Amino acid sequence: MSTTVDEKKFGKKLGKIAKTAGREVVEKALWLWYAAKNPKTPLWAKTTIGSALVYLVVPIDAIPDIIPAFGLSDDLGILAAAVIAVASYIDDDVKKQATERLKKLGLL
Q1: Which pLDDT belongs to residue 94?
Q2: Mean pLDDT for the stretch of residues 59-67
Q3: 30 has pLDDT over 70
Q4: Rounded distance, CA 53 to CA 39, Å?
Q5: Which of 83, 104, 105, 85 minimizes the C-alpha distance to 94?
Q6: N- to C-terminal Cα distance for the chain?
Q7: Residue spans per domain, the chain
Q8: How far is CA 94 from CA 35, 48, 56, 60, 98, in A?
Q9: Which of 23, 28, 70, 86 could cross-link to 45 by cystine, CB 3.0-4.6 Å?
Q10: What separation in angstroms does the CA of 44 have from each of 40, 74, 83, 100, 105?
Q11: Do residues 76 and 27 lie in contact, with contact meaning Cβ atoms separated by under 8 Å?
Q12: Cβ–Cβ under 8 Å, residues 14 and 106
């Protein structure tokens, strides 16, 4: 499985999960997205981030997203683990970019 996420697919998925999972989940996904885009982020961290975001975007996963209340729980766990693993690369600039995107999505 590739660890590359298409920006258009990522944006569509963010719009969908924003309705059910909320702003904080979208914010964490955006932190990962922008950390991966940073040239200072090392390859191992980009691979970790890419894997988590691919899992979020791919419709086939351990718990189908259409199951109410539980559908995104596996996705959230993967995102949380990735955020913890690469936390040192989620700097103020990454958070600022995520905040700007949240505003564009109408989540702030």
Answers
A1: 97
A2: 58
A3: yes
A4: 18
A5: 83
A6: 34
A7: 7-104
A8: 6, 16, 19, 29, 6
A9: 86
A10: 12, 22, 13, 26, 29
A11: no
A12: no
